[in-house]
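Practice problem: predict the structure.
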Amino acid sequence: IPGELFELFPILKQFLNRRGGDLSGGQQQQLAIARALAAGPKLLILDEPTEGIQPSIIKDIGRVIRMLADRKTMAIVLVEQYYDFAAELADQYLVMERGEVIARGRGADMEADGVRQRVAI
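Answer:
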């Protein structure tokens, strides 16, 4: 297990001897991301990593995503319904509706472009 993964997700070191199924939802999500990173990907696809996760772990996951993005060693595709989480992390955004792209732009422009209103349910 690459030591860097424990630097990204320190909580996982405490659970080395536990089965993944015995972890909380947030811990399982961190483990899933760590497992993906262990392969040294050039592209990391994260499908709703905040789904059902407590706020403190959402912050941890966001911190790791930002750190990985800042390294510029891999592309990260984040599929996310939690607008604030996505807006905080996005370098670029793309909004889809029924399989079609309805908006795209720079992450910094999401609010000005009215993305929050477009994705509000």
